[in-house]
Protein backbone atom coordinates (compact mmCIF):
# COMPACT_ATOMS: atom_id res chain seq x y z
CA UNK A 1 0.00 0.00 0.00
CA UNK A 2 1.13 3.55 -0.75
CA UNK A 3 0.35 6.43 1.61
CA UNK A 4 0.72 10.07 0.61
CA UNK A 5 1.13 12.39 3.57
CA UNK A 6 0.47 16.12 3.58
CA UNK A 7 2.25 17.78 6.50
CA UNK A 8 0.80 21.15 7.40
CA UNK A 9 3.77 22.87 9.01
CA UNK A 10 3.00 26.15 10.71
CA UNK A 11 0.43 27.64 13.03
CA UNK A 12 -3.32 27.91 13.28
CA UNK A 13 -4.28 31.51 13.99
CA UNK A 14 -4.69 32.26 17.69
CA UNK A 15 -8.04 31.20 19.05
CA UNK A 16 -9.03 29.48 15.80
CA UNK A 17 -8.10 25.84 16.49
CA UNK A 18 -11.65 24.52 16.83
CA UNK A 19 -12.91 26.52 13.85
CA UNK A 20 -9.96 25.27 11.77
CA UNK A 21 -10.64 21.66 12.70
CA UNK A 22 -14.34 22.00 11.94
CA UNK A 23 -13.61 23.58 8.55
CA UNK A 24 -11.17 20.79 7.68
CA UNK A 25 -13.72 18.11 8.55
CA UNK A 26 -16.77 19.72 6.96
CA UNK A 27 -15.32 21.59 3.98
CA UNK A 28 -12.15 19.76 2.93
CA UNK A 29 -12.58 16.14 4.05
CA UNK A 30 -15.43 15.40 1.60
CA UNK A 31 -13.16 16.55 -1.25
CA UNK A 32 -10.25 14.39 -0.06
CA UNK A 33 -12.56 11.37 0.25
CA UNK A 34 -13.53 11.85 -3.42
CA UNK A 35 -9.98 11.30 -4.72
CA UNK A 36 -10.25 8.43 -7.21
CA UNK A 37 -8.72 5.18 -6.02
CA UNK A 38 -8.23 6.29 -2.42
CA UNK A 39 -8.53 3.41 0.04
CA UNK A 40 -8.44 5.41 3.28
CA UNK A 41 -8.24 9.02 4.36
CA UNK A 42 -6.85 9.84 7.80
CA UNK A 43 -7.07 13.36 9.19
CA UNK A 44 -4.79 13.83 12.20
CA UNK A 45 -4.95 16.93 14.39
CA UNK A 46 -1.98 17.58 16.67
CA UNK A 47 -2.57 17.50 20.40
CA UNK A 48 1.01 17.93 21.60
CA UNK A 49 4.63 17.68 20.46
CA UNK A 50 8.13 17.35 21.89
CA UNK A 51 9.90 20.51 23.01
CA UNK A 52 11.60 22.08 20.02
CA UNK A 53 9.71 19.94 17.48
CA UNK A 54 8.21 21.70 14.45
CA UNK A 55 4.52 22.48 14.66
CA UNK A 56 2.22 20.35 12.49
CA UNK A 57 -1.37 21.18 13.44
CA UNK A 58 -2.64 18.83 10.71
CA UNK A 59 -1.28 15.73 9.07
CA UNK A 60 -3.29 14.18 6.25
CA UNK A 61 -2.70 10.62 5.07
CA UNK A 62 -4.40 9.18 2.00
CA UNK A 63 -3.69 5.56 1.13
CA UNK A 64 -3.79 4.03 -2.33
CA UNK A 65 -3.15 0.54 -3.69
CA UNK A 66 -0.17 1.58 -5.84
CA UNK A 67 1.81 4.49 -7.30
CA UNK A 68 -0.13 4.52 -10.56
CA UNK A 69 -3.31 5.17 -8.60
CA UNK A 70 -1.60 8.01 -6.71
CA UNK A 71 -0.57 9.57 -10.02
CA UNK A 72 -4.11 9.27 -11.38
CA UNK A 73 -5.59 10.83 -8.24
CA UNK A 74 -3.13 13.73 -8.37
CA UNK A 75 -4.07 14.39 -12.01
CA UNK A 76 -7.81 14.20 -11.35
CA UNK A 77 -10.39 16.99 -11.22
CA UNK A 78 -11.18 15.85 -7.66
CA UNK A 79 -7.68 16.83 -6.58
CA UNK A 80 -7.98 20.25 -8.24
CA UNK A 81 -11.26 20.84 -6.39
CA UNK A 82 -9.74 19.63 -3.13
CA UNK A 83 -6.76 21.91 -3.53
CA UNK A 84 -8.98 24.95 -4.10
CA UNK A 85 -11.08 24.24 -0.99
CA UNK A 86 -7.95 23.54 1.06
CA UNK A 87 -6.42 26.86 0.02
CA UNK A 88 -9.64 28.65 1.00
CA UNK A 89 -9.67 27.12 4.49
CA UNK A 90 -5.95 27.70 5.03
CA UNK A 91 -6.27 31.36 4.04
CA UNK A 92 -8.76 31.82 6.88
CA UNK A 93 -7.05 29.84 9.63
CA UNK A 94 -3.43 28.86 8.92
CA UNK A 95 0.00 30.39 8.36
CA UNK A 96 2.69 28.05 7.13
CA UNK A 97 3.44 25.61 4.37
CA UNK A 98 2.41 22.16 3.22
CA UNK A 99 4.80 19.49 2.06
CA UNK A 100 3.98 16.04 0.77
CA UNK A 101 5.68 12.69 1.24
CA UNK A 102 4.80 9.47 -0.57
CA UNK A 103 5.59 6.33 1.41
CA UNK A 104 5.27 2.60 1.15
CA UNK A 105 3.15 1.60 4.13
CA UNK A 106 3.54 -1.60 6.09
CA UNK A 107 0.60 -1.70 8.49
CA UNK A 108 0.70 -4.20 11.33
CA UNK A 109 -2.66 -4.37 13.07
CA UNK A 110 -2.46 -5.32 16.75
CA UNK A 111 -5.41 -6.97 18.42
What does this structure look like?
There is one protein chain. The protein is an alpha+beta fold and 111 residues long. The chain is 38% helix and 32% strand. The protein contains three helices and four strands. Helix 1 packs antiparallel against helix 3. It is globular. The model has no long low-confidence stretch (mean pLDDT 97).
What class would the helix/strand composition place it in? Answer: alpha+beta
Tally of helical runs: 3
Largest sheet: 4 strands, antiparallel
Order of helices and strands: EHEEHHE
Low-confidence stretches: none
Radius of gyration: 14 Å
Shape descriptor: globular
**Number of E-type strands:** 4
Quote the average pLDDT. Answer: 97
Q: Approximately how much beta-strand content do the residues carry?
A: 25-35%
Identify the strand order in the major beta sheet.
Answer: 2-3-1-4
Helical residues, percent: 25-40%
End-to-end Cα distance: 20 Å
Amino acid sequence: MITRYALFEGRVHDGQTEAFREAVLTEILPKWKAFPGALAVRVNFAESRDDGAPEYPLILAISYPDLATVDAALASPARAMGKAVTESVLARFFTGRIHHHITTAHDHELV
